[in-house]
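ARCHIVE CARD
Drawer: 12
Card no.: 0347
Subject: one protein chain, sequence and derived structure
Cross-reference: see card 0346
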Amino acid sequence: QSHVICYLIYVAMESKSKRPKVVVNGKISKLIVKDVRFPTSLEAHGSDAMHKDPDYSAAYVVIKSDGIDHEGHGLTFTVGRGTEVVVCAVESLRGMVEGRDLGDIFGDFAGFWREITSESQLRWIGPEKGVIHMATAAVVNALWDLWAKIEGKPLWKLLADMTPEEILSTIDFRYLSDALTEEEALEILRESAHLRQERMKNIRSSGYPAYTTSCAWLGYSDEILTKLAREALSQGFTKFKVKVGSDIEDDVRRLSVMRREIGWTNMLMVDANQKWDVENAINYMTKLAEFRLKWIEEPTSPDDVFGHLAIKKGLSQHGIGIATGEQCQNRVMFKQFLQSGAMDYCQIDAARIGGVNEILSVILMAKKFGGKHQTKIDIV
């Protein structure tokens, strides 16, 4: 459901209300968190240049409430070892969640979000980054899921039906005012209000644009890559992403196989998963430019804003864009990437930054600074 947030956020309608009128009679009775793991490493599913043997996993949160039949479900994505650490972090948030009135939370979601991310002792192990923030995402997204179920809507529809003021009431603008004020955000939403019905019609008739990586994990043989590329084509995919970064000769061969299968009119991107230093990234990607690549994703450290900007400049002559954000830790990192122009494609992981609330702030900044944005959430 989080995949379609950015597609619909600009379609909200105007209202005079400052806070959403939430009538929910119930309190959170229980927060459950589970360590869920899948042995995907056995067949190299999910493998890339930095994560050669991932076991796709999750710290999976369920929120139960008194007087309401629905449960809220949320997760944060992991790759095996370390999931137990995230589970412990979720447990540490329990006292701020259980016993809370749902109407109070949804009526001032920005206030709740700030409270849970600003707990005076827990924030020391962040703040707003790393394991504690991933735990926050699982809890916050479970609350959004519960709210949507109470309203009888999918999450994207809950958001699309909100007024601009209601959307803003869920966002914490702290640390953003130098880049995006609440007044600017409100204007962005109001200016797009007239597109609401058109976008709603389009999302229902055409679906949400998507690409596939599933046919080109780094550990796959050429035979598997070929088979899965053909299957993806038959399913209607026209955009494909290939994992690269370990060996240039191997990558040239694999990209040749992919172009042979999908042709030269379909879109092709690559992802290095933070493998290279800056100069290595420029040199490596220059050697792959012949394959007409739309973007290189995560070419270097996810925290290196200036490094991404240098890579962008170094590859501009080849028409290769820069995609990143999957491992951006919070809205402040996105602010710097977007302000500097270091990213062309803004990829938001809804299970790494602090859930839907923080996603909304990033989407609004991407709109202001002109990023070609897409949301991205990795789940099994």
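Annotation on reverse: The longest strand covers residues 28-37. Residues 1-17, 373-380 have pLDDT under 50 and may be disordered.
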